[in-house]
Protein 1
Amino acid sequence: MNFLRMENRALAGKRVMIREDFNVPVSDGCVTSDARIKAALPTIRLALDKGAAVLLLSHLGRPVEGRFDAQFSLRPVAARLEELLGLDVALKTDWLNGVDVAAGEVVLCENVRFNRGEKSNDAELARTMAGLCDVFVMDAFGTAHRAHASTEGIVRAALVACAGPLLSRELDTLEKILHDPVRPLLAIVGGSKVSTKLKVLDALLDKVDELIVGGGIANTFIAASGYEVGQSLYEPDQLHDAQRLIQKAHAKGGSIPIPKDVMVAKSFSADAKPLLRGVDEVAQDEMILDIGPLTAIEYSTVIAGSGTVIWNGPVGVFEFRHFAAGTRAVAEAIERSSAFSIAGGGDTLAAIDQYGVKEGISYISTGGGAFLEFVEGKSLPAVVALQDVAGD
Ligand code: ADP
Ligand code: MG
């Protein structure tokens, strides 16, 4: 992809504004998961090493635009960032009126979503923000699918706009696996609903050699194949689409396998008793909450034989101890395999953390929604803007 890259720019003495994704969970004024802040550190350090004066932008949560709301303040982020960087990080509230920052310093601007016009991509707001810097760096992959003032408008308004290393690496990696993967290319798409991932499933079927569905999505495919799914989470209104996808896979000479065995329960709860069933043995008062051990072995074998694995979505209710084995087996099979692996999605990342398999996954995408939209083949507005401004 053709866009300017921060790594190649001279930044000495320049005011460099970096759009980060610091949308982290906060509880009682403390950041409870700092993975996104840690992911941003190399970019910030690189800018400082190059002699820049650094301004950081991010959103946090969904505040009402146009006013400050302490609940959505980036103050906890500033505190954590200070610890991680080992540098003072000033949090600036009324930053649209101008910010004093010297080379070697870092200023965090308060939540961009406190500004009216952020989400509607107001051109005036974008110009005001762009006016605060000499170089704008877009490094927030997780928000690149949104055309907001601090992600898209500002790219077009800035004197110079480039991609940060985190964003570039993410785009380069995704491009490579979707356009030139080491085959066979396997995608595992789990999670709760077909309806939220239908477009992704459709787009993936065009590209992959093998597609495994899991979780509530698999339940809909099980029902579409004519089996009883009892009280399982599934979507009757998606049966038609599931059948269409099965036929699409057949037309390509492949298939979308459904689990041979499943773990069921009589209630949706952490202490529900797990029962093993063949896929054709599920009773009307039971719900499928995980794949069974045979299926776990079968999927692990497919993973072991793949050249590239894309993983989004747990294959069971992994939050419940008794129904986590399937997701764990998938995570560990990916960890063991020599395939190039890429994983994305909020719950998928939680599972990866839970099973400690992070080191064995080649690339972990930082953006859930943006990751899925990229896989769907949609263009990401902030990236399109970066390409447009690089072109002239
Ligand atoms: P991600 O955030 O990784 O994209 P999703 O949000 O699509 O994943 O799906 C994750 C959720 O799907 C989890 O909360 C998990 O409990 C749920 N899930 C997985 N399998 C089932 C199932 N068989 N029945 C009900 N919910 C399920
Ligand atoms: Mg989720």
Protein 2
Amino acid sequence: MLTRIEKQTEGGTSAPLIDPFGRAISYLRVSVTDRCDFRCFYCMSEHMSFLPKQDLLTLEELDRLCSAFVARGVKKLRLTGGEPLVRRDIMVLFRSLSRHLDTGALEELTVTTNGSQLARFAKDLVACGVKRINVSLDTLDPQKFHAITRWGDLTKVLSGIDAAQAAGLAVKINAVALKGENEDEIPALMEWAHGRGMDLSLIEVMPLGEVGTERVDQYLPLSLVRARLASRYALEDIDYRTGGPARYVRVKETGGRLGFITPLTHNFCEGCNRVRVTCTGTLFMCLGQEDAADLRAPLRASESDTLLQAAIDEAIARKPKGHDFVIDRRTKQPAVSRHMSMTGG
Ligand code: SAM
Ligand code: SF4
């Protein structure tokens, strides 16, 4: 006899995922590992403890999970981390997911990376149907780069970006705006990116996870960055969207696009079309809330996807209207205790 949940999803597993506020879920971000070869000071503490390998979903399980979402109308899939390209055999997952591009079920397969492994993988990514990638880079100054990432090597990242562009990938640079760290360099970073035909998106520091420094010290509102840029450049609001939360302007002098991702100064929840899964199969319906659903247990409980689809339905029915990020000046506690490397941004 079927259980109540099995009955609910029987025959209905191809129905699109619509949350209680009428938002269709079309974008899934999957953190494929919590590990990373960098230790960016706003993202991780220097001495992170990582998950035991057996807690991680296997590549086959990640494929099954992503495919279950694609079957429910997810059109855009972004692999992230930790650093996705340090997960062993990660190209096996890209290759297998690319079948959904071939059938047309998936419109975009993409990745957010720190760039350290791109020289090795750029061509493979293209072969798997990846067309655009995001590379995180906060500074072009080797010493600052080392100070921000603790373990990173700027030369490797820059040659990774060269390799990506040479392989034909469209590259967008993501930079976190950091008070006293890279704030003076933002115009130079923008001119460099635009000069190479790359968009640049600026991100506000989000209060995720305990990282050993105070968020109020790192926080630089993008409203201020934008006002400073506007005194030097002509910024024209444009409609361009990539399915993500960035709002774009065209910079007249460079001809390039500049995006602003402002969770703290601008609420972008209204049009939220995305959910996130961690490498242990935990589904977060909102980056800024603690509520989550375990998809690993239903995934492992049976070979059929019935239980998994039911768990996805139950979770999406709980997707909140929005987040409530605040950097609390009194307690200086992060609004959400998990690190960004868990959900991948
Ligand atoms: N390792 C990859 C990378 O750095 O691109 C992918 C994962 S990383 C967590 C994804 C993005 O989140 C990066 O652009 C990073 O700069 C950003 N990020 C990490 N911690 C953040 C925080 N506390 N606030 C805002 N952005 C953050
Ligand atoms: Fe690693 Fe990316 Fe976090 Fe930096 S931001 S520590 S590269 S996961």
